[in-house]
Specification:
Two copies of one chain form a homodimer. With 155 residues, chain A is mainly alpha-helical. The first copy, chain A, has one domain: Winged helix-like DNA-binding domain superfamily/Winged helix DNA-binding domain (Arc Repressor Mutant, subunit A). Chain A is built from six helices and three strands, in the order H-H-E-H-H-E-E-H-H. Chain A has helices at 10-37, 42-52, 61-68, 72-84, 106-126, 133-151; strands at 58-60, 88-92, 100-104. Chain A has a three-stranded antiparallel β-sheet. In chain A, strand 2 (88-92) and strand 3 (100-104) form a beta hairpin. The structure holds a DNA duplex (30 and 30 nucleotides).
DNA sequence: CTTACGTAATTGACGTGTCAACCAAAACGG
DNA sequence: CCGTTTTGGTTGACACGTCAATTACGTAAG
């Protein structure tokens, strides 16, 4: 039994609170904008962005999940929903009988090409424009550091 | 028709990508830890934290939603689920017939007091420990700036 | 060959979040 | 007062995410 847990000191707590609230508000607004401006959710956007940046708009299922760092069941459900709406299709993989490809359809391409400009505007308006170029770099660098730290850390 | 949208330049895009990936990975891990270490979800934790930091463990519904910056329907569903599990109760509001109070039950207190130490450890391990005190301050300051920027911004 | 084990991906159940519609009490304007 | 609008809060339908279990194929060992 840990007698007295090591609480965060006031400066740490303040930094954490600001970060968490900012992050939540930002991603919340962005995904609501996406949803109402286009017919894509944030999840749809991420998947289509990954696919369309890839050779032929196709990717192996597992590579896709790693690329966007999702769990495979999440991706499977997502791909299922997107397939139902005609944004992607599943294809079999010749060299591995268990494998699958996920492929962006022409509609998928159309959808993300339509959605991207406005989305980028919102990212710019809500996030990029809040900071100077130098501050933005700093934030990016610190984010990368936290990311690297987490990757060296168990689970 | 916008001829050529203003895309992010490479540095901006890099900063944005790092931030987004970091944030997603961090909150994902933290909420999975909460879920498996305690019997609270991240949402439960946020609500109970707000309530138990407040006089008498009770708050007006709307104040609660503003405090954690959620939409009211989200809060209503959440409170409903938590009430079903005995973590909170709803009470009527005498001075406003439409109003409601949300109150943390003893079990609610017990649950968050049990969950908090481990949760804080994870926050420390995954986030705080990744940065020096000075870097952490910087990140907090930049987050606050983005937050303030968003608050001055339409929707 | 076959048994066993690991890997690729799907499924189902359930908790969670969003949107739009709704309801009831309050506040306001005549 | 009475009708209208605003405010506080709930509801239902549906999209989304997680976990645990499952299917089906690949691979290596005896």
């Amino acid at each position: 039994m840990n007698a007295t847990p090591r609480w965060l000191d006031p400066e740490q707590k303040a930094a954490w609170d600001h970060f968490i609230r900012m992050q939540e508000k930002l991603v919340g607004r962005l995904s609501r904008h996406l949803q109402s401006d286009s017919k894509l959710s944030a999840a749809d956007y991420v998947v289509l962005a990954a696919l369309t940046e890839s050779e032929g708009g196709r990717m192996r299922f597992l590579n896709l999940t790693r690329r966007v760092e999702w769990e495979k069941s999440r991706m499977s459900h997502q791909v299922g929903r997107m397939a139902k709406r005609g944004l992607v299709t599943r294809e079999e993989c010749p060299e591995d009988g268990r494998g699958a490809f996920v492929v962006a359809t022409p509609e998928g391409y159309r959808a993300i090409e339509e959605a991207a400009p406005l989305h980028v505007e919102h990212v710019r308006r809500l996030f990029i424009d809040a900071l100077t170029q130098e501050e933005l770099d700093t934030l990016g660098r610190l984010s990368a550091r936290v990311l690297a730290h987490m990757e060296q850390q168990p689970d």
